[in-house]
Amino acid sequence: MNIHSLLNNIDVDASSLDITITGISNNSEKVEPGNLFVAISGYASDGHKYILSAIEAGAKAIIGEQDVQALSVPYFKVANSRIALAQLAKTFYNSQSRPKTIIGITGTNGKTTTSFMIKHILEKSGRSCALFGSVHNIVNGIMISGTTKNTTIDALELQKQLAKSKDEFVIIEVTSHALTQHRVGGIDFDICLFTNLSQDHLDYHKTMESYFSAKETLFDQLSKNGIAIINTFNKWGAKLEARLKKRKLHTIYTMGDSSTSFSIKDIQYKDKMSLIVQDQNHHYQLTLSFLGEHNIYNAVMAFLTAKAINITPEDALQALETFSGVPGRFEVVQHPIGAKFIIDYAHTEDAFLHCFHTANAMGAKRIIHIFGFRGGRDIGKRQAMIDVSKSFSDVIILTFDDLNNLSYDEMLQTLYSFDIGEQGLVIPDRTEAIGHAWNMIEKGDWVFITGKGHERYTQSFHSDTFSDKDTVEQLLHNPLSYTKEHISIELPFS
């Protein structure tokens, strides 16, 4: 592509240049001859430091946001390299040339499960669907390897994959980080969903208002006749609805009490969960074959999305009843004595509450909770999470999650800094913590292992297993792998 055409939609002047650009890169190690290199001031490193390396690799032009000394290739200064990258990638790949409906989902919890539910409804209705999210990315029915480091992939890769997609529908999980870093920049969304908001990522956003504002910006990218779907059971959802109404959006669906577009009534917990979804003229019986109070809200959000894209209520309800769940999201493994192990990604106070409410509603004898905290992440939410666990759990086992940049001793000291009381234990090795719970449970107990969900372990533990699910399944097949003598640390609070 000629550089003049490529740069036409950003505020720079390349009219005097006659350069053919063969591709775009924001990683100097991946630059190929003829590429345009975009230097981004990142949080771990600054791309401007690698401009010369990019030129040596064959870059024909550079985009950046800092003043630089004379280069051997044209340099264009922009106000924000991330915004420029998104627009350049959209232009280069012509990513929305094929007609498709693009659905964006944001919120603290529920993005992944809701996206999987919508995808399931679409495919049961004979529609093709691409998916970009935290578990995996799928385009044209093929899973793309190596693209799930972040829940929302960067703008360059996302636009590239959108250009490849021949799918009728595209679902994108959109995080607050992705929005502030413009990873979905240049995308026109047909439907935007807001699931909820609770304290998370304040190490990055600093305040809840800033966190909310980041989420809200997704709705700035709704197309002219786009549809907003909002969970107003959450106070932040109600706030979002009020703001969007002032902007006079074309259509807003709200899920909440009787004053909203759709209300939820008569929730029943048996072998399956069931509820009534009601609008002004109709009521719909929704049955779910998987558990989790939070999944009620996720399912209704998916149902409203189906309505927005003209899938019949009957088809949507039937599809939801056959939905089997998502890896690492309220994933249940039955213990042989009649207890349940639940593996869930829950990592906020709100997510804990939904888990515990479900256990109580379904008659759990005892609740045993295994969880920890990630090094270098939002420390402000930790005490609230512990307080919720103390209120509902009969046994609490604090253990390691990802250490990130913390040492073993630093994380151990962190765990001991909390008062969990007599029901609390610290077992740093995550697999030993799970093994301890396996050996102590009784019939009717529910054991929640929260925080990692489907994610792989990032450090070595006693077991050679690679995830919470893998550890539980090893115990299922070899229950003697964690006898008391195998557990090296089991320390009660004094």
From TrEMBL:
Q: Where is the Mur ligase C-terminal domain?
A: 328-453
Q: What SUPFAM superfamilies does this protein map onto?
A: MurD-like peptide ligases, catalytic domain (SSF53623), MurD-like peptide ligases, peptide-binding domain (SSF53244), MurE/MurF N-terminal domain (SSF63418)
Q: In which pathway does it act?
A: Cell wall biogenesis; peptidoglycan biosynthesis
InterPro entries in the cross-refs? Folylpolyglutamate_synth_CS, Mur-like_cat_sf, Mur_ligase_C, Mur_ligase_C_dom_sf, Mur_ligase_cen, Mur_ligase_N, MurE/MurF_N, UDP-N-AcMur-Glu-dNH2Pim_ligase
Biological classification of the source = Bacteria, Bacillati, Bacillota, Bacilli, Bacillales
Q: Does the keyword ATP-binding apply?
A: yes
First-level EC class: ligase
Does this entry carry the keyword Cell wall biogenesis/degradation?
yes
Q: What is its main location?
A: cytoplasm
The similarity annotation says: Belongs to the MurCDEF family. MurE subfamily.
Localization terms from the record = Cytoplasm
**Which Pfam family is an annotated match for this chain, by its short name?**
Mur_ligase_C
Domain named Mur ligase central is located at: 105-305
Task: Name the Enzyme Commission number(s) assigned to this protein.
Answer: 6.3.2.13
Q: What is this protein called?
A: UDP-N-acetylmuramoyl-L-alanyl-D-glutamate--2, 6-diaminopimelate ligase
Q: Which UniProt keywords apply?
A: ATP-binding, Cell cycle, Cell division, Cell shape, Cell wall biogenesis/degradation, Cytoplasm, Ligase, Nucleotide-binding, Peptidoglycan synthesis
Task: Give all residue intervals belonging to the Mur ligase N-terminal catalytic domain.
Answer: 20-93
> Which GO terms label this protein's molecular function in UniProt?
UDP-N-acetylmuramoylalanyl-D-glutamate-2,6-diaminopimelate ligase activity
